[in-house]
Amino acid sequence: MHTIWKGSISFGLVNIPIKLHSATEDRDIKLRSLHKECHTPIKYEKVCPVCEKELEQNEIVKGYEVTKGKFVVLEDEELKKLKEIDGEKAVEILDFIKMEEIDPIFYDRSYFVSPNEGGKKAYSLLRKALQESGKVGIAKITMRSKEQLSVVRVYENTLVMETIHYPDEVRGTGDVPNVPEENDITKKELETATMLIEQLTTDFSPENYKDHYRERLSQLIEAKQNGEKVVTAKEKAPKENVTDLMAALQASIDSTKPKKQRKESKKKTTTKKKAQ
Predict the structure, then answer these.
(1) What is the CATH number of the domain that holds 93?
(2) pLDDT tens figures, 105-130
(3) pLDDT in tens, 163-200
(4) Which of the two residues, 195 and 266, has the higher pLDDT score?
């Protein structure tokens, strides 16, 4: 399993060297955008619309838009100074809480945690302590230049770290439009709805749920491939500037003419002018 981050978890005086591995994967079928006429994949280029030219990476800077069309420019060096010196490699558990206190709306991404060299015993200690207490750890971690909150918990005998949103990143429910107030619901309606919920209640088994769209899309692609309905993108033809080519050829011919011939040509031209 690919390692995406190396560092350590600390709680109290205990320090655990760890590695993080992505716990989930995107299984979506990726579709490319093609030119309908020649089936060539479309390029998305970084182009300045004012200068009308494609930009190199070293020509691009970060900026924050304060008002429409006005920006505060932030240099890479300035952004680097804002990072904590040791923040990149440290995960500090700040508190321990009950997992049910965290609403699922706060969860972002999940990562498996494995012990790095020399960290197996401390890893096992934290895992056992979390299992016995029924608690999870609230920690801070800096990943991809961003400081994030995270939850450290046990999942099937493995520690898992799940990044969570800060409170100000979760929008208030008061901003949701058209949410009805308490309406007049009859006792009979409520009993019927509750009965339906009871009838559909079961144990959660993730394997019972599938992405049917992805399955159908995969079958369609396979059917088209087996039926040889596969298109080939056209290769880009080399550009030829006919005018420039002719000019270059003529210049080459002129430069290789014998000197005598060029002198005679000049004499003829001078004689004609005198005769006139």
Answers:
(1) 2.40.290.10
(2) 999 999 999 999 999 999 999 999 99
(3) 999 999 999 998 889 888 877 888 999 999 999 999 99
(4) 195
64 inside domain:
no
The answer to whether the predicted template modeling score (pTM) of the entire model surpasses 0.70 is no
In a domain, 98, yes or no: yes
166 CB-side CA count, 13 A: 7
Number of independent structural domains in the chain: 1
* φ, ψ of residue 151 in degrees (nearest 5): -115, 130
Is the residue at 106 inside a domain?
yes
Tell whether 63 is covered by a domain.
no
Q: Which residues, in sequence order, are bridge partners of residue 95?
A: 138
Nearest Cα to Cα of residue 38 among 238, 232, 240, 221:
232
How far is residue 252's CA from residue 156's CA, in Å, rounded to a whole number? 77
- pLDDT band with cut points at 50, 70 and 90 for residue 243: low
Do residues 136 and 96 touch, judged by C-beta distance below 8 A? yes
The strand pair at 135-143 and 146-155 is best described as antiparallel
pLDDT of residue 111: 95
Average pLDDT, the chain: 83
Burial tier of 93 (Cβ tally within 10 Å: 0-12, 13-18, 19+) = buried
Collect all residues with Cβ–Cβ distance below 8 Å to 44 and sequence separation of at least 6: none
Which structural domain, as residue segments, surrounds residue 110? 5-23+88-168
